[in-house]
Specification:
Elements: H1 12-18, H2 35-38, H3 50-59, H4 78-82, H5 89-102, H6 108-120, H7 132-140, H8 153-165, H9 168-171
Length: 175
């Protein structure tokens, strides 16, 4: 009996979507030389193997969107600068990230950043009473919470309108 959870899902629509952009059409000329992987600083410290991402993207392997590897790229563009075919590898990875978010694949850490940003106006939680901010706030008589979009209700409404328009909450529940 075949274990369906182990099957790899292929779809030409993923590689086709990458090829819509003129620059990204160059992905089809990838010769899998591995130069992108060898010059990747993130690959030295993470599981990122850029060549593998390119191969999966080119083949239309759907799982590339749900794997954490596409989020390890630091967008330094070393891969693009050294690619013998001048494939914009970083742009391909950014496109894959956009596709992943559209399908609801986003690392929990980034989901938390978005939730915090939407709920407080800050990308990261503010420190406690003993934080550097609290000491600076007292010293300079600043507001308890630094001003954000939450201080301007009309701007906050506009932000939520934009997020609702792109159906962001349906993909990544944030409130």
């Amino acid at each position: 009996m075949i274990n369906k959870s182990k099957l790899i899902k292929y779809s030409s629509e993923y590689s086709d979507e990458l090829s819509v952009d003129e620059d990204l059409k160059k992905i089809r000329s990838c010769i899998q030389c591995g130069m992108c992987t060898s010059v990747c600083p993130s690959g030295s410290f993470t599981a990122l193997v850029t060549r593998k991402i390119m191969r999966k993207a080119l083949a239309g392997v759907h799982s590339v969107l749900s794997e954490p590897d596409i989020w390890y790229c630091s967008t330094c563009f070393n891969c693009y600068e050294r690619c013998p075919r001048t494939i914009p590898v970083t742009n391909v990875i950014l496109k894959l990230r956009n596709m992943a978010v559209r399908e609801g694949y986003l690392p929990d850490a980034l989901k938390n950043v978005i939730k915090n940003l939407a709920n407080t106006g800050h990308a990261v939680p503010l420190g406690g009473a003993d934080s550097k901010w609290a000491k600076l706030r007292e010293l300079h008589k600043l507001d308890k919470i630094p001003p954000t979009v939450h201080k301007f209700p009309e701007a906050l409404d506009e932000l939520f309108t934009l997020l609702d328009k792109i159906k962001f909450n349906a993909r990544i529940p944030y409130r």
